[in-house]
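User: Please fill in residues for this 92-position structure.
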């Protein structure tokens, strides 16, 4: 329910983010939004520990994990991403 998604289905009249960015999409939420710098830095620190330079930290990793990593590593990625989402309080 990011603003861009709601805008695309005509539920909101604009796609902009509360930070002022013109498009609150998944890329912006996870990688750019200035409202969540602290939470993002925490998630990235956790992800760096998990992947140990075996995969790039990008939107694909955040959304899908990485088939070259173990199930345990992917479960930890999933947990880190969900902790980020919860810590932003964007969906509460």
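Assistant: Residues filled in for all 92 positions:
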């Amino acid at each position: 329910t990011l603003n861009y998604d709601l805008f695309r289905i005509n539920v909101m009249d604009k796609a902009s983010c509360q930070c002022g960015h013109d498009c609150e999409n998944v890329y912006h939420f996870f990688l750019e939004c200035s409202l969540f710098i602290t939470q993002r830095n925490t998630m990235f620190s956790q992800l760096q520990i998990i992947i140990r330079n075996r995969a790039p930290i990008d939107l694909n990793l955040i959304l899908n994990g990485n088939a070259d990593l173990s199930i345990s590593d992917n479960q930890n990625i999933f947990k880190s991403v969900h902790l980020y989402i919860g810590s932003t309080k964007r969906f509460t």
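For context: Residues 60 and 66 are 8 Å apart (CA to CA).
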